[in-house]
Amino acid sequence: MQQEGRIALALDALKQGHFTSFKGAARSYDVNWKTLSHRFHGQLPRCETRPSNCKLTEIEESTLVEWILSMDKRGLSPRSDFVRQMANLLLQKRPNSSQGNSPTVGKLWVYNFVRRH
Fold first, then answer.
1. Total-model pTM
2. Where are the domains positioned within the chain?
């Protein structure tokens, strides 16, 4: 996160007019000039963006988390195959998916989901 702080300082210096080029500011703050340029033009850091290959939307994932927590409160342990089935059910219930052609989550999806949350 030190790099993010240096990028923020470099962006601030650029906006205040202390530097005339991205390369000069990047050199002074020891950051990549391309990254600085991208951030200056509005690109968010990777840690703040959602990957484009996620199967479920943020709302669907939060719904799944709530379901897991409710199962836990009732004393039922949500096994990985149940979580996977629920994720596939959420994918099937999308308004734009046809019954026989909806996507499904992979075998390691639950493991990666738990790591993300």
1. 0.59
2. 2-48, 58-116
